[in-house]
Sequence to fold (129 residues):
Amino acid sequence: MGNYPDALRYTKEHEWTRIAGNTATVGMTIFAKDQLGDVVYLELPEVGATVTRGQPFGVVESTKAVSELFSPVTGKVTKVNKALVDAPEGINDDPHEKGWMLEIEMTQPAEAGQLLSAKQYEDLIAQEQ
Fold:
């Protein structure tokens, strides 16, 4: 596999998370992007919205399907990638860097410890295929 950076943490719903202090940057994994096909529409929460771990925070639409996006942590949205909302195809090009969707100020930072490592995520994908 090798497409999943060790510095990121992952969810079973195929979102990635980059933790820096109390901030979690969130995006969709390459696996999810490959399963969906070309992303054509993205709906994200507004800055200031509250998100809850395991609950939907947005919607992604592709040429194949419409799917909900699930929050990896609980907290307040502090930043949204507006460029990605305007041009969602950025997810297709680079889901782990340019494809970040939002930043969350975590209110329960211990939740980050429940996210999967790159190895655990790769094992999960292998089981799903």
About this structure: DSSP finds four helices and nine strands in the chain. The first helix runs from residue 30 to 36. The mean pLDDT is 93. Helices lie at 30-36, 82-86, 90-93, 118-128.
